[in-house]
């Protein structure tokens, strides 16, 4: 496995690749990547969620990692937030911050043992990207969301069409409502020069009530 860095993350192909990389990266992820790369996406996603959310949740943070989304949600202390991630080491780092109600180790490319219709919001930053999780996982997230639940999901723009996300949203049109895409920068101005033009589609929608 390559040394943990952005290029190694973008080269991931399988769930086992993810586990191996983030096991090695968890201890230094916030400082060696999030801070150094001026990684703005988690904060952006957190602010969008706060802007569109109605109700108190609970919230599922998908691909929660070290908790970068949760720590940026305004008034997060008023919310019950659960963390889901494939990496136990990353979840252990987020647990040190005391941000979540529960910590769920799960691989979204496989069936997930979570009951139907229990979350009032689903949020994710950086999970639907290079070699991580494909559009089929959206079916699982819809299953575990309450009718009317709000979704704020970031999707790497480079792969939005090529990896089937555009087609997926068209296919689930009858299951969701108020779909809106916001295209925003992933990194701030002090981030890596070779990734200054990297953007994310922020998909904002609700699970359609029955």
Description:
With 210 residues, this protein is an alpha/beta fold. It has one domain: Rossmann fold (3-Layer(aba) Sandwich). It has helices at 6-10, 15-25, 29-35, 41-52, 88-97, 137-144, 165-171, and strands at 59-62, 81-85, 102-105, 119-128, 145-156, 176-185, 199-207. The protein has a 7-stranded mixed sheet with strand order 3-2-1-4-5-7-6. The longest helix has 12 residues, at 41-52.
Structural topology:
Elements: H1 6-10, H2 15-25, H3 29-35, H4 41-52, E1 59-62, E2 81-85, H5 88-97, E3 102-105, E4 119-128, H6 137-144, E5 145-156, H7 165-171, E6 176-185, E7 199-207
Parallel strand pairs: 1-2, 1-4, 2-3, 4-5
Antiparallel strand pairs: 5-7, 6-7
Distance from N terminus to C terminus (CA atoms, Å) equals 46 Å
Written as H for each helix and E for each strand, in order along the chain, the element string is HHHHEEHEEHEHEE
> Number of DSSP helices?
7
Please name the CATH architecture: 3-Layer(aba) Sandwich
Question: pLDDT under 50 segments (min length 5)?
Answer: 1-9
Number of individual domains: 1
Largest beta sheet: what is the strand line-up?
A: 3-2-1-4-5-7-6
Number of strands: 7
Quickly give the structural class. alpha/beta
**Largest β-sheet summary:** 7 strands, mixed
- The CATH superfamily appears as Vaccinia Virus protein VP39
CATH class: Alpha Beta
Q: Whole-number average pLDDT?
A: 87
Radius of gyration: 16 Å
Strand content: 25-35%
CATH topology: Rossmann fold
Secondary structure: helix percent: 25-40%
- Shape assignment: globular
């Amino acid at each position: 496995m390559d040394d943990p860095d952005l290029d190694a993350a973008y080269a991931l192909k399988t769930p086992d690749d993810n586990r191996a990389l983030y096991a090695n990266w968890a201890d230094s992820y916030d400082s060696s990547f999030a801070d150094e790369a001026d990684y703005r996406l988690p904060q952006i996603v957190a602010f969008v969620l706060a802007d569109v959310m109605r109700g108190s949740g609970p919230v599922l943070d998908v691909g929660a990692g070290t908790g970068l989304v949760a720590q940026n949600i305004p008034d997060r202390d008023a919310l019950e937030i659960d963390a889901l991630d494939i990496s136990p080491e990353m979840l252990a780092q987020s647990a040190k911050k005391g941000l979540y109600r529960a910590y769920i180790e799960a691989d979204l490319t496989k069936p997930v043992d979570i009951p139907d219709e229990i979350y009032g919001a689903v949020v994710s930053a950086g999970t639907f990207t290079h070699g991580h999780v494909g559009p089929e996982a959206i079916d699982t997230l819809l299953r575990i969301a309450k009718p009317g639940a709000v979704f704020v999901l970031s999707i790497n723009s480079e792969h939005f069409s090529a990896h089937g996300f555009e087609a997926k949203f068209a296919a689930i049109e009858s299951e969701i409502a108020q779909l809106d895409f916001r295209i925003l920068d992933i990194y701030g101005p002090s981030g890596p020069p070779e990734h200054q033009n990297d953007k994310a589609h922020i998909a904002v929608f609700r699970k359609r009530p029955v």
